[in-house]
Amino acid sequence: MQAKLSALELRFSNLEAQLGAGETYGDPALVAKLNKEQRELEPVVTAYRQYLRRRQDLADAEALMGDAELGEMAKEEFQQAKEDLTRLEEKIRILLLPRDPNDGKNVIVEIRAGVGGEEAALFAHSLFRMYSMYADARRWKVEVDSVSETELGGIKEICFTMEGDGAYSRLKFESGVHRVQRVPETESGGRIHTSTATVAVLPEVDEVDFELNPADIEMQVFRSSGAGGQHVNKTSSAVRLIHKPTGTVVECQQERSQFQNRDKAMQLLRSRLYEEKVREQEQEVTDQRRSQVGTGMRNERIRTYNFPQGRLTDHRIGLTLYKLEHVMDGGLDEIIDGLITADQAERLKNSQDT
To answer: Cβ(161)–Cβ(145) under 8 Å?
Structure first.
């Protein structure tokens, strides 16, 4: 591990020198690539440098422990340095775990109303608002690709793209069934109803990541419309793509141009098929050992939003928060950080067992 860390530190120093010299400014693509590599290396290199400093502090303290005047202080520093080294070693092991190759990608999020009729559609709208506010707080860009609304302002289903640094790494554990317990706006008797919505988070896949055979794709065009038939286009600009081998269907209707909708739909189709391929590969490899926050949880209830009690519970990590309003306003970081920590702990345990 020491040799690997030394090599990473050397590469990080070389990147700093290369970017600082200004020789790459004439090549924006190269600058972006080097900056990205530098950002990815920075956490582990920073932790490694802290580790080296504390290791030297440990040696210095040990050398002074026999001193009559400084011995007691040196013993305290020695003990503190030992604890810090243990903590940093654990942190470095986690940072050295293999990265998900999709972590740096943008995401395509699909939310669908589940059980509960109109209340499920209203909850789907609440989830879309929650993720949009989370994106705003992180300065991510949100673009709606397609949406099917209800007369009361609910959402039957919506597909949107979120563009931002590390979007997939932050949102990939949101996939699954979300359950809500609240008094619906449509309920006059004040009874609490339980409804659900499903969320799917897909990495945005470029053409180079997943190649599609044009002969396998059937394209249909139609006029897009909003709730109740409003906003009907005069031209057939909306696009529906059907992947004939798998029966996968995607639509895009938000752009004015048929060509723009086709490009967006093709990107969505590519991402869905890529995600399915990865899921199948993971199923083969990890059937007997799957992280509790892995992709195998998608068909199960992952989280409950209880409005009467102001309570949110993520069932995968046993986390309960009594600040539901804050969460619904985009305050997801505490939950997401908990999921990431649990996933890292599980993967670290698996790597040590194997």
So the answer is: yes
Nearest Cα neighbor of 58 from 31, 89, 36 is: 89
pLDDT tens, 161-217? 999 988 999 999 999 999 999 988 766 667 888 999 999 998 887 655 567 888 888
List domains and CATH numbers for the chain. Answer: 2-95 (no CATH), 104-204+295-354 (3.30.70.1660), 205-287 (3.30.160.20)
- Using CA atoms, how far residue 272 sits from 60, 127, 236, 277, in Å, is 56, 21, 24, 9
d(CA 278, CA 128): 26
For the stretch 277-328, pLDDT in tens is: 777 766 654 443 333 333 333 346 899 999 999 999 999 999 999 999 999 9
The structure's pTM equals 0.71
Per DSSP, the residues of 318-353 read TEEES-HHHHHTT--HHHHHHHHHHHHHHHHHHHHH
Question: Which residue reads 């050992």 in tokens?
Answer: 289
- Helix, coil or strand: residue 107: strand
Q: Which residues have C-beta within 8 Å of that of residue 353, sequence separation ≥ 6?
A: none
Q: Which three-class secondary structure state does DSSP give residue 121? A: helix
Question: Which residues sit opposite 148 in a β-bridge?
Answer: 157
